[in-house]
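S2.1 Query sequence (Integral membrane transporter)
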Amino acid sequence: MDRAHGTTAPPSSGGTGGPGGSTGTAGSAGSSGSPRRGTPAGSGRRSLRPRSALTAAVFLLPALVLLGALVVYPIGYSVQRSFFDKSGDSFAGLGNYVTLFTDSTIRTAIRNNLIWVVVAPTVATALGLIFAVLTERVRWGTAFKLVVFMPMAVSMLAAGIIFRLVYEQDPDRGVANAVWVGVHDTFAESSSFPRARPLPAHPLKAAGGGAYETKAPVRAGRPALLPLVGVAPAQMPKDARPARTPADSPHGEISGVAWLDFTRGGGGRPNAVDPKELGLDGLRIEAVKDGRVVARTTAAADGTFRLPAAADGAVLRLPASNFREQYDGVAWLGPTLVTPAIIGSYVWMWAGFAMVLIAAGLAGLPRELLEAARVDGANEWQVFRRITVPLLAPVLGVVLVTLMINVLKVFDLVFVIAPGSALDDANVLALQLYRSSFGTGADLGVGSAIAVLLLLLVLPVMAVNIRRMRKESRR
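Output structure tokens follow.
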């Protein structure tokens, strides 16, 4: 028939083109699994679906078991337990949740958690953005990023111990107060002899405001004696020398000596300069006549001093600045500043995390947009505010949301850094959960209610994060 129509059948790839070849081709097609007559097309693919679902279930089963045992069951049990009393035998209804908002300690924890959620992620993200942008153009930017990111390798417990020492009140031990006191003493005069005072038998009396003055005016030719006590020998100036009575001053000048009227081991005489008694080096002295200061001087290393003839007949006054308590710095771990101080330690740890993520996003920005803005005349601040930050908005959102979830779980920093006297003032919900559940007089009902409250606080943040991720996947 092919010949009748003038056409030639194409040779079969599986045979010789003859009847035998055609048969071989049909056999090959049949052996390749082509559907039989009466069988709907695609029924083989549908038959594999139950097997694929079973295989997926087998592989997912261990993860589902762990998820149920470690997440679902504890959440369900905590919700159930929050409706029972301390013993767990009697139904308490919403009583435990009412306690969350009536107990002053728990209300302080809730307030502190709000401060943490608002301040800590914002500051850490802002610092990370600044570090990422500023280090992009410097040659040693990689080394700087390494140093800033290094605190992430430190555990929360170790960081808490470090900052507990940093915030020590004693400037000789606490770095923060050592720096603060150094800056303060640079601009404000420090006292020379705190707690120094005269005895009733001394020729000095209180003058008000913490100052002391002589009981009688001083006269030329008579050495003025200014004895004091109340200074520990170890706290005397290093340059102090044994005190001596000065010789008479010529030209009507006033001479005198200010010394520590105390002999170690006893045996000294009051109002007399003994050999082992030291001069009050640096003591400030003023001569006052008719309520007006006519002369000023400072005692030498051996306590001696001189005043001009104008001081004849004046009363010598020792200003209160000589005896003011030394500045010991700021009470970083006091009730007022303990929460900001702990937030500072958290920012120290997590600013590097924010910087690394933002730097990764910054590396992916289209450089042609930044260069086009600069060519159009925009300065660096305008480029940063109107181009860099909007383009980095998704990355900044990821960092901010991640840190917000993280700060809701802060426990060990507060527990380690805050001293016992300020622990209630620095309290947060995660710490209160531990204290209510396992501390003295443990109440698992209240502890479970706190756990549920923490879950409810995390859910909105997670919902925002999931919504943002879905928007990103649709682009």
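The chain has two domains: 104-176+332-474, 204-322. The longest helix spans residues 43-81.
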